[in-house]
Fold each of these.
Amino acid sequence: MRAFRALTVTAAACAAIGLSASFATANPPQGGGNGPSNVTVNPYSVHQGASMQVSAAGCGHGGTVWSHGNFPQTNLSAGSIGFATVRIFNHASPGHHTLSVKCHDNSLVATHRFTILAGNGAQGGIGGSFGPSTAETAIGAGLIGAAALGAGVHVMRRRRPVGSRA
């Protein structure tokens, strides 16, 4: 009886998978080679010389991203959603600009707006990667030496004579 029940469940699962596979091939997922769509940029406003992430759906075999005078042509990765990281030129003119995305397997071009901000952004994330300079090290060693000398003089002046009692 247990074997019959297991066989029935297995047959039902195989039938469900078989029927869903034929349905999936009849209705391909959106963005599967119909040209670029849902183009996004992160961040929308980017400083000169900074990097920006671009993503687009619909380029299953990859594509290219470009914006004349703002960053070089860059490859978009393959997949249901393609990604590219672009670096804005240091000399790019501030203001509102448009980037273009074209798939390798399609002639359609999608565009998206973004903003370039004047000047360089903050160099965050460096943390403790920069050590002290030689001048800072010399000043620190001098301060430690002066503190040790001052503490020694203080202890010597506050010392009680050996024979006296308080």
Amino acid sequence: MLSLKLIRENTQLVRDALAKRGETAPIDEIIRLDEERRRILSEVEGLRARRNAVSQQLAKMKDKPPETIAEMRRVGDEIKALDVKADEIQSNLDYLLLLVPNIPDESVPVGKDESDNVVVRTWGEPPKLDFTPLPHWDIGERLGMIDFARGVKISGARFYVLKGMLARMERAIIDWMPDLHTSEHGYSEVAPPYLVKRESMIGTGQLPKFEEDAYRVSDEDLFLVPTAEVPVTNLYRDEILEPGTLPIYHVSYTACFRKEAGAAGRDTRGMIRVHQFDKVEMVKFVEPGTSYEELERLVDNAEEVLRRLRIPYQVKLMCTADLGFTAAKKYDPEAWFPGQDKYIEISSCSNFTDFQARRANIRYRPAAGEKPEFVHTLNGSGLAVGRTLAAILENYQQADGSVVIPEVLRPYVGGKEIIEPA
């Protein structure tokens, strides 16, 4: 959330940021309501000062004029009515502020759509295969280990069932990724709930703007997590972190649930864009002066997963139009998928600056006795598990239909080296 002060004092900066994003927000209404609220508060302050002065005079009088007492009652009633009006305006302001996206960092390229994203680096060479590579959905079905038909039968479109060694491989990936991040990258592991309150979804920016993408338990107003970012970031909602606490690095595995309401027709086949998926998420809470350095390290932590798996990838710096609502700067590592002859997003790593911290009221005290400040939050997939499994299937497929298991995962699957058709 942007501060009201920023919008009030740097209105043109905010308008320019919205234009770069290609988005709209109710800035005019925010300014109007802010001016009205401040006018009312000034009027209330004047009425209270007048009432206090008259009350002091009355206290000195033995015989208190009835007309003065009646007038002060009217003043009291007017103050109450104005207070109610000010509270209503504040409530409207609070809601409208939640609809304003973050301001892109100056280093973010200005663009009109995803075609203006910039590839900043690549790693590895796409494998040169002496056979025509298959997409992962064909590989999984040939192995007899991905069952899309039964997934649809059980739950509907964009669901699937993993069987045998692919079910075990998914579990191996889930185990290995947090092990890497905790043992080598300095993260502490968190196992959060999969259901969160509305306040938590507001805190990280999923609500109110993107409620149509969320799965909601209507009778309790709870939401299935779209990513571990939501519960992990909200660990510190409405808290002041004491001096020396930062930086905090957490890593968390959760199942994730998204309706993908805005993705009709995209990646309809396979495991790429589904309603339920697994993800290992890295979340950081840092001091403002270090957050962009922390973003670069976060991206490298995600890349290291791909390097260990020896999967070729590229990293894109997202342009202003493809940042997402909450990010000030975002990188997307994309894995190479030979069966589809393209790179596909496998992680998103973002610096939100103080945008989420303001919404969730997460602050820290720089030193003992100093005034609390908002932290900067960051998060990145480390990685999306289903997409990682799909990338392994496509990059490690063999001409005979088998799939080689990456070396780093073999200790997690009992030393097995090859997945063969069931």
Amino acid sequence: MFSKKQLMRRAIELAKKAANPSPNPRVGCVILRNGRIIGEGWHERAGEPHAEILALRKAGKRARDGELFVNLEPCHRFGRTPPCTRAILRAGVKKVVIGMPDQTKAGGGAEFLAKNGVVVEMGICGKECRELNQIWLKNANSLIPETCLPVFNSEVAQIRRIGNASRGLPFVALKLALDSNGSTIPVRGKKWITGNSAKRKVMRLRRNFDAIAVGVGTILKDNPQLTVRGLKIKKQPTRIIFDPNLRTPKSAKVLQSGGTILVSRKPVKIPRARNLVARNFDLKTILKKLFKLGISSIFLEGGETTARKFLAEQLIDHIFIFQKNARGIPKICGQKLPLQKVRKFGNDTFFEGALRKY
């Protein structure tokens, strides 16, 4: 027999199967009838069927009188796809259990279902559902309202305040690799600080973001490709170079294929790359411009110089740290940040922390 939390956590795990459905949220769905799971699905990418629709298709006629578990309130408007609420009603589902409400224009599904005789329950694993969709929540049309606060916890009021101040900015996650002394510079003769297992984890993290970004110093030192390798991916993230004084060589690997944005103070023409001009090179203004270009999340790599600038401007939402031969929680650019040890990859320790919550 499955508990409600087990089924919601299963929906969350299904949602994670989508690498990056941007600009849509991650959503997974499970349908239960007579104690058995009869349908599952997850939303893969924008424009493709939603999780509820895929789960209903798998369940077929067996969905009648079943229970549907989904981590985000089913949508209730026509967009690229029809509303999920109407499909749920047509299928004859008797109960819908929802992890968290949708406060965008697509919301209202729970109320609609309840008015049409479906039993609706809200707030199962609410915190975990929010953590799953932090990128999407940062710029959702409106965040969790006061009426929903009892469903979650006392942090929500602070989350709402931070969220409102952060509208129109991409979600930025900083990733750094450190040696045992906290340096981001590999020892002489070595290109990498961390081992192969940690590098594979970085690839899995990269594919969750719209863009991978570095400062020009990383381009000059490492000449990276800034791509996802060794994993199936339908579309490579956009590559972004922060290069105020145009020091990026035209032979750089990152410029040899399309999908790169070079941010500089002065305009420049580069084959197969886009130039974004920011004359005063104000990072917040740059991020707003990138957001308008459709970049809603950035995986910020590179060295300490870029990291310090973004931290100083309070533009980092999340942090991923890999440290070789770690001894306790490392300081980041001289700061103690809310990091927690997640797991070990051989001699490397992976730390993670949220600087902002939405």
Amino acid sequence: MTPAVSLRWVLAQSDLGLRLRSGDQGLDHPIDLVLTTELSEPFPWLAGGELVLTTGLRLPASRHGRTAYLHGLQACGVAGLGFGTGLSHPEIPADVIRAADRIGLPLLEVPLPTPFAAIIRRVSERLAELRYEEALRASRAQPRITRAVVDDGAPAVVRELATALDGRIVMLDRAGAVLHADRDDSTPELPAEVESADSGVSTDSRGETVTWQQIAVGRRRYGVLIAITGAPLSNVGRILLGHAGSLLALDFAKSARLASAQQALNTRALATALGTDPGSPDIPDPLMAAADPRGRIRVLVTTCPTDAETAALQQDISDAFEDTELSRFTTVAGRRTIVVLPASDGVPFAHRLSDRIRDPLRRAVRIGISAAHPLARLADAVDAATLAAAAAVPGTAPVEFGATIGTALLASTAGRDVLDTIATVLDPLLEHDREHGSDLFGSLRAFLEANGHWESAAAELGVHRHTMRSRLATVRSILDCDLDLARVRAELLLAILSHSTRTG
């Protein structure tokens, strides 16, 4: 609260001889400044909080004009009006007293022996005392706040700041949830600009002043520090709030540096584990922190078409980790990012990451997640997550490895190369269909997907069974193969799936 002198204090200075004539309900109005004026309309030069002193030299002659003069002062928010008697007016006009009392404007009678300068000097000296006392309190509070952040961290800072500012202090995290508060109160009402502005002031529905300060270092924001006070903070109060915010930001930055160092160790541990002999049971000790209490993990793999997109994705992965208590184990291998997570947290984290990525990067990213594996089978989990990522559609939800059953060969680059080669055996059949307008390809596919039951295939296509047997005889002749052999049917079905995926 900005230091101010109340009208009650001024009236208590008995040597000044001031007397309250009206507006006793405003005795606690704070005085920011005392000024003298004989203007009949001083309103453009008033900012509010002034004790205006006048001898009434140019007071409007009519009762209506004097009432308008008082209303004008009230509208400007002045603390009160001091009326000097014994010069232009032997006493305060009765209609002025009645009008001031009616509108609630404090009216003080200043006797002739009391110079206006004495009132100005007395209030100025008191304001200087109050400001010195406030600065002294701040000088004592700053070291306490500094010691608090060193000794006990953010909770202690919140408590010390609440004492120093005589208000409620709330600290929010990046998501807007309450991290610490000096008392058990609800989250304060905040304007929308609190998310973008570095600092600001607003008034809540209860009339209290809400002052906020972002806790940030550079472009990285860690939360918001909020002071809720009965009146606006003074300059010293705002300095204390900013001081506390800066200390907390540095404390967060220190933690972030430690986390970065730990992340570097985790990355090396993961890279070491992935580079060991797949049959080796040895897992670096730091990697144990990646597993859940049962020693199980899931691996998340992301792939991007370019190195630049892979690099850009790392920030989204970092941000996704900041919203959790998970230890970060990640490494980048080419355009593939490998993340090791506790088995119970793997799927929720994958979806959190997917939701965080924004276009245009989102349209380039594939995300796969393995099933739960013992930590010793890390390599198997990586292979499974890689297959799941290959099966994922860029820009869509993560694919779990279990969902890739039946598509894993098609998802694998090596598998696709083999299948594309096998698919060439279908070329004569496709050429025959083009030249004769037949659908031997479709008939063969129906037969194979019916597990070699030509009657079921005929029913699926809606043709007579003799027609189906005739078509299959033509297929045997063109492809020169024995459709009664299971391995032949298996290779042909894979070839058809590869052809359909490639063309469809």
